[in-house]
Amino acid sequence: MTSNMVKEITINIDDIISGDFGAYQIKELKGEGSFGKVARCVDISTNQNVAVKIARAHLTQATKHEAHVLRMLSQLSDDKNIVKFISSFEYKGHYCLVMENLDQSLYNFMEKRSFQPLNLPEIRYITGQLLVAFKELSKLQLVHVDLKPDNVMLVNHKLYPFKVKLIDFGISTCVAAMAPGSVLQAVGYRAPEISLFANSNGAVDMWALGCVMAFLYLGQNLFPCNCEYQMMTVITRMLGMPEVHQLRQGLRTRCFFKNVNGHYQLNLPKEYTMLTGKIVQPCRNWSTAFTSLENMAIYHRQPVTEAEKEESRQFINFMKEMLQVNPAKRITPEKALQHPFITQKKVPKRQS
């Protein structure tokens, strides 16, 4: 019997956890993190597999917030590619969410294949589905703010190759509530305006989606994930400096940039450390040597046919639209769905 601790609660395989509207038998521990644990369970009343997220006791309010958001999103049709919410309940002081059972995260999938890059038709198919999800969030003025490969789930890779759904709305927020100074998004997937503590909106999700695409294309993160200074260094080298109005607006600009005779320059590592108290970490990403997004193609299978070369050009062009340093110039989900890279209709083959 397997036993796992979630704060003061112990969960065991074959245990039954229950709430006011259902009982669920634990069959498998699917994942764990700072939030708590996720278990595959069987709904005793229907005999259907479900996923139950068991939150740590101190995260009850955040989990209730996620339940509220998912309940609102549950009105959307299944083709909007957002995880289906079933119910929520409290069990021994821990708030639990019941959702549809999905296969594995994009990160786990890439890890199992030793981070071998995906091909462009596969990346296109995944990206298109996520754009549909973000288009719906945009209509509702919702921002996910935590997109990364861990929060994109394959539905059933064997039956439906690369069909995905967006999960984890624990820190999602409405656009109107996004105030400068909120620490959102994982480092490496964090939009420049978030790092600068400048004004932000739903465009932060599009930045993160561009980072997810790069991860699938390269088999590693485009921007360093272990150090925000290194991340900003690579961003400015590859994509250029934030615009002056962003830098003037940012409450945290001085941590990364200094104004020298009216011109902004990136701080030296020692200056960043002095201002923030954080040590600049060494970085092993290939991208530390990149000077443009075109450099990514060096680390991907080279196109052979004219059609493949055109597809590669469209991909790089699309990435430039996604990774605009100025959020006002960043492509929206609606426009992204019309981009030539996305509108091609190649679907990945079913796995044998």
Please render the helix and strand layout as text:
Elements: E1 3-6, E2 9-12, E3 16-19, E4 22-33, E5 36-43, E6 49-55, H1 60-73, E7 85-91, E8 94-100, E9 104-105, H2 106-112, H3 120-139, E10 142-143, E11 152-156, E12 160-166, E13 173-174, H4 192-196, H5 203-218, H6 228-239, H7 244-249, H8 253-256, E14 257-260, E15 263-266, H9 269-276, H10 306-322, H11 333-336, H12 340-343
Antiparallel strand pairs: 1-2, 3-4, 4-5, 5-6, 6-8, 7-8, 9-11, 10-13, 11-12, 14-15
Helix pairs in contact: 3-5
Model description:
This protein has helices at residues 60-73, 106-112, 120-139, 192-196, 203-218, 228-239, 244-249, 253-256, 269-276, 306-322, 333-336, 340-343, and strands spanning 3-6, 9-12, 16-19, 22-33, 36-43, 49-55, 85-91, 94-100, 104-105, 142-143, 152-156, 160-166, 173-174, 257-260, 263-266. Strand 4 (22-33) and strand 5 form a beta hairpin. The model is unreliable at 1-7 (pLDDT under 50). A 6-stranded antiparallel β-sheet has the order 3-4-5-6-8-7, with helices on one face. It has a 3-stranded antiparallel β-sheet with strand order 9-11-12. Strands 1-2 form a two-stranded antiparallel sheet. It folds into 2 domains: 3-100, Phosphorylase Kinase, domain 1, CATH 3.30.200.20; 104-343, Transferase(Phosphotransferase), domain 1 (Orthogonal Bundle). It is of the alpha+beta class.
